[in-house]
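Before we proceed, please read the two lines closing this message. Tell me what the token row says about the fold.
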Amino acid sequence: MDSCTTPGLMPIDDALANMLKSIAPINATTNKPLADSIGYVLAQDLHSPINVPPFDNSAMDGYAVRIDDLTETTTLTIAGKSFAGIPFQGQWPIGSCIRIMTGAKIPQGCDAVIMQEQVSVKADDADFSQALPLRDQQNIRSLGEDIKQSNLVLPKGHRLTPRDIPMIATLGIPTLTVLNKPKVAFFSTGDELKPLGTELKEGEIYDSNRYGIKIMLEKFGCEAIDLGVITDDKEQLRQAFIRGQQQADVVITSGGVSVGEADYTKIILEELGQIGFWKIAMKPGKPFAFGKLIATDNTSDAIFCGLPGNPVSAILTLYILVQPLLAKLAGHSDWKPQPIIPAKALTPFNKFPGRTDFQRGIYSINEDGQFEVSSTGNQSSGAFRSMSIANCFIILERERGKVEVGETVHIQQFAPVFYS
């Protein structure tokens, strides 16, 4: 029997459902200055305390006019100026106009602003013949046009992005009530893993997974706690699990979840907590573990996710399986995965039925607007170069076999977490 058809593997959708139903969002909150709130999730609905803009203002540099003043003439005397922060004061005589700058308050009675490029000025007179006819409210930004006072601006559960911060600043809100970020402790396991900058001996490799895991956890909006590399020693692993459980909401390991003689993770998890499931019907990433570490002191239980040790498998399972879990834990209610898109295969894809296969691919859009995708080549779970040059996953269904050129496959474009 091919290894891909090994019975007892949990389908990905079932694994995700089991994981998500077993956790509840964090409800502890904190107040953050607006400038420091990026990446946090709103703990309550955000309503606008003011109108934006807070007054009628000019959309450009030009001249504020009353349309009625231009029904019988095309020339008006310039009666004054209105600058941003220094509005026109006093009486505005009939038959005159006001020089106005972008963002400046609209004088009372004005119903149009004419851009300066359409006006000829001699001394104190402005000729508007090039700009006629006019329309009511031309080049005027009305009070509350963007956001009205009391309107819902962002809902509870929204994760704050760089686009949100300046918008919130226009409302004059200096601090936000946000949910605490999930704390995630993580470590790699294996005697063969060595730190960067050291000379490798026979049988040794550099520890690479922690670098990808850390940055991805931070991009997911978590507080990442790096516990380093733990050797294949049962007692050291036990202490690492305990430290992780005491410090974090989630403990993530990389490696040690296979069936080798030195893989102690399953044994320790059975002693310190509960195992939810151990193997997933996905490739790469079959030896993915999920469970719980039970607190023995005044701390709280911690969720456990065991990632495979191969680099592509580790990052893929973190992205596909752990990311939705962390989003729910963070209260990020508007999180959703990247859409699945049909695409034409430009290269063949090898596959055996039995597991959903996530192959690395490079997609493009042809002149007819159709998505096309080709393989990055080596699809080994240890070949991270193929992940580095890819821009999508080709998701081949569980019972699907080999794919020939021209067949339709489904792709999932990489999310921004892989680019920024």
